[in-house]
Amino acid sequence: MGRIGRGAVLLALILILVSGCALGRGGGRKTVDKAEMPEAPGTQVYTGTDAAIDASNAAKGYVMVRYTGSADKVQVQVTGPKGTRTPYPFEKGSYHAVPLSEGDGSYTIVVYAHVSGTSYAVALSQRIDVKLTDEFGPFLYPNQYVAYTNNSACTAYAKKLSDRSDDDLDYITRVFNYVTGHITYDNDLAAHIPVNYLPDPDKTMSSGKGICLDYAALMTAMLRAQGIPTKLEVGYNETVYHAWISVYLKEKGWVDGIIQFDGKNWTLVDPTLAAESSKKKAGAYMKDRSHYTAMYQY
């Protein structure tokens, strides 16, 4: 994603809350014991120079990508059927999931290996035609920006919150309240964000602090781990580089920009801002969705 400026501290979470933001008594929601995890079974694999793409589960909404060469840095770029080019900073060694976020169609996946300076060489380029068996698949698995396993602290705590929840709405509310109530903004990190910064939800939980992307990644991980399709979207809030979250609810469909505070008005709230100031004030600012232009979905 490159360097994120201090001005990009806003991070918008799209949620629906029940009337008055009141939490239920808990216990009615069916907790997911084990979250869906991506796999690389090896039934359809494309190989190149020290790189491999396992497309065995492309119909589920993801491919697995691996680089084992000597380059010190790796980038993966996915061009979807809508023409969006989505970048992924990549860690070498084992397979990592890359979502196919634009649904059915043709994707081109390119693995770039760093040569020197700003120069990269193509280690592997592959076109893949995709027909999803589940339209929500790309938004139910971990990936580089939303990293978790079934042994992660965030998934364990997600189960505890789900056990106390009446339904998905109640659970989403509890996740939102937990993150905004327990994570504080890390001004030191914000002033010195590494290039290609990748969030770590468990680290955010243990440290109790993070920047805007850490807030979003932690919430997305906890929601996906409990079977709620969740989009982590990156784009612009007017001229500020920005990220926000959309969730899918069976009763409402995709919720792209609203959160309920008083039982009457639907508003959009920023979880970083909500953790530091009035939620109603944040909601009032975020209410106009014309502020947002989405570029990528992770």
UniProtKB/TrEMBL annotation:
Pfam families with a match to the protein in the record: Transglut_core
Origin superkingdom: Bacteria
Transmembrane regions: none
Residues covered by the Transglutaminase-like domain: 204-273
SUPFAM superfamilies associated with the record: Cysteine proteinases
UniProt cross-references to PROSITE patterns, sorted A to Z: PROKAR_LIPOPROTEIN
Protein's name in the database: Transglutaminase domain-containing protein
